[in-house]
């Protein structure tokens, strides 16, 4: 039984090659990239209020944060990078300018790069899961990642649809 450990300097997928009469050598196959979609939602610790006309949640002066399930997806992407399975972790978010705060949080956690798909629509009410899945599909097409990670669901609508539609 031969056990070979990848040198810590390598963070890409590698293969061990052997030719008769030579030493073993590492061959870099490809840089594996992961994309993680993150969503900006009302902070889970905040008690939400309903508007007077009972049409939606009152969003003025409400603390927003990254969806906890998206945060778990970012953490898993970081674990995969630490293990050497992923060389680059890219986070993506759709929404208005304030969605960049969520991307900055993911970058502070350790993500390598962030992509902000700017829209004038609010992700909590106007931007529907199918539209988000189509936008993410374009990002996946352009970035060509090996892996796409999404949180199980968003705590604002609990719809759990975007991942299925993206797949």
TrEMBL record:
Pfam families: ETF
Source domain of life: Eukaryota
Compartments in which it is found: Mitochondrion matrix
Family statement drawn from the similarity comment of this UniProt entry: Belongs to the ETF beta-subunit/FixA family.
Single biological process term from Gene Ontology: fatty acid beta-oxidation using acyl-CoA dehydrogenase
UniProt organism field: Spumella elongata
Name of the protein described by the UniProt record: Electron transfer flavoprotein alpha/beta-subunit N-terminal domain-containing protein
InterPro entries documented for this protein: ETF_a/b_N, ETF_b, Rossmann-like_a/b/a_fold
GO cellular component: mitochondrial matrix
Native organism taxonomy: Eukaryota, Sar, Stramenopiles, Ochrophyta, Chrysophyceae
GO molecular function: electron transfer activity
UniProtKB keywords: Electron transport, Transport
Annotated Electron transfer flavoprotein alpha/beta-subunit N-terminal domain residues: 59-167
């Amino acid at each position: 039984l031969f056990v070979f450990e990848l040198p810590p300097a390598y963070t890409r997928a590698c293969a061990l090659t052997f030719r008769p009469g030579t030493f073993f050598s590492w061959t870099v196959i490809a840089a594996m990239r992961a994309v993680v979609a993150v969503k900006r939602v009302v902070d889970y610790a905040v008690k939400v209020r309903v508007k007077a006309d009972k049409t939606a949640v009152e969003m003025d002066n409400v603390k927003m944060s990254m969806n906890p399930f998206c945060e778990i997806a970012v953490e898993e992407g970081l674990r995969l990078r630490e293990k050497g399975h992923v060389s680059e972790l890219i986070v993506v978010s759709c929404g208005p300018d304030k969605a960049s705060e969520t991307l900055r949080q993911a970058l502070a956690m350790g993500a390598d790069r962030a992509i902000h798909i700017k829209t004038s629509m609010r992700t909590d009410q106007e931007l529907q899961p199918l539209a988000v899945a189509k936008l993410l599909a374009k990002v996946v097409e352009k970035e060509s990642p090996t892996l796409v990670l999404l949180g199980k669901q968003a705590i604002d609508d609990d719809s759990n649809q975007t991942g299925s539609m993206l797949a």
